[in-house]
User: What shape does this take?
Amino acid sequence: MLYPQRFTQFTREHADTVAALLCGLLLFFGWFALHLGWLGLAFLLLPAAYVIGGYESAREGLTTLFKEKELDVDLLMIVAAIGAASLGLWRREYHLIIDGAILILIFAISGALEGYAMARTERSIRSLMSLTPDTARVWVQGREEEIPISQLKVGDEILVKPGELIPTDGIILSGYSTLNQAAITGESLPVEKTVGAEVFAGTLNGYGALQIKVHKPAQSSLIQRVIRLVEQAQTQAPPSQEFIDRFEKGYAKVIVVAGILLATLPPFLWGWDWETTIYRALTFLVVASPCALMAAIMPTLLSGIANGARQGILFKNGAQLEKIGKVRAIAFDKTGTLTTGQLQVFQVVSVSEYTKDDVLKTAASVESSSEHPIGKAIVQAAGETVRVLAVPVESKLLNPKGDLNWVGAMQVQAIPGQGIVGILPEQQVIVGNAIFVQKYVTNLPEELREIVQSWEQEGKTVVWVAKNPTPNPSPLFGRGAGFEVMGVIAIADQVRSQAAATITRLKKLGVEQIVMLTGDNQETAHSVAKAVGIDRVYAQLLPEDKLDVIRSLQQQYQTVAMVGDGINDAPALAQASVGIAMGISGSDVALETADIVLMADRLEKIAVAIHLGRRSQLIVKQNIVVALGFIVLLLVGNFLGNINLPIGVIGHEGSTVLVTLSGLRLLK
Assistant: This one.
């Protein structure tokens, strides 16, 4: 029972190949029977070869003719083959029947080869869809239970063992491991992940067991969005392919009219005999068909989409792969794009009687109760440098490595836009801006004022730290009541490590204009722009202002790309010729609006995408030249009488396979 099942499965998966093989065998035996003079057997075998080899093409051609009222290239091939057979029967020159059968055989072989070539691209794309397991281990009432991914709910806690695939996006509750994210983000090196880090479905867990909390529906995971977008990209034809499709419909009609004229006029105009006239007209139908031209674009673009997906670059459709190669200007958002969007401690300066660790530790004890981004940055920096053992359970904090805790301040009170105050054992602490701290400190140290001024000119946010060793029932009390400044902390949004190299690479690629758009102030904007090598800056912009800048750039440079991550970038992303979103840090609105998504938030992939787009355009142009060149050569050869029908078919189908394989070069 096993072998019939395998045979049935093989014939179903390789139907085109089986049909071509049967057609070839019947053709050979039919030719052999004809050679021996066994006409009855030959006339039985050769029609069978015609039917088996040409059935699929005839079906597709007739379907297009009757349903869409359009002539199809497949139908032209069948007409040419039947015409050759009819001419052979009429003139009793049976070798013409063999010629028609060879036409169908080569056409069938070509179809099978094209199918395999395209299947390679399809497999590359479908490999994304096998990246997630079907089930997940969930903790239910203290015990482990395996359920389908589709049944996962937000809030479920799942267990992922070493060496297993992450089933859905989530936040790590416990455990430490390294994750291979290459399939999702294109990153070649494993990434360390621990408590609080986000993990993505389809990534491979390393050596540590992880307990993960589901924080979004499984169908909303990053990999599922990728799969949906790639499926959408496969079905959307880019403008160049749409043009070729329209051209093919009109071109097929021209071929038919020209074929009819060539089959009737030459005997009257040039004295050709009818056999030569009809034979050359049939050959004309074959060699003039635009099969190679039709295959010049989509295999190339689908290969480029698959290549990009493997490198963490998601093209939503082939049109964007075309456009990215033509980009002449690029606009970058600042926060979350050129920078990480996460504030970090840049530098700490203390007065003489205190150390930098004293300043950070004191500030963190108060800021640990705050949800403000500045407070989180200070806590994170302190967690990487200090360690205190005595900790109340309610104020326990962990650094990214999970090995730090300290005593949190009591009676913490935040004053919006100014700072925060709190009480530690035997001392009171104030953390905030200069104006706020001056309410409690008579004079700010002059040496710190100069340092702070230079920091502020660089666009950094400065936090002052002061304390009062005299106990007091309330942290909010009058000016100069025993407080002394401990030091200052500079906070800055960190520039992405690869940003400067990316800008340099884009300039080398010939991008004519690179600008930065931000809603931040001029000082901060210019400091970031200087750090990454951007000369043109637009600061203090509202979302509609960014839109206006993109429109202005389009008037000057035509094809403009916009790179962003936030909701406020969505209008500009939509307006740009090519919108590029950051896949991890990007908002859902930005991801939906953008045309290209950088799955790993790696800016250097923009240069890779542009190179891929330019290479795809070069290959498409090469394919079109090859396709048109073959058509012209075959047409000239046909009119000069130097090629017969089988040679014409080999040239025609060979060029089709050649341009298809050429397009698959982008898979590398």
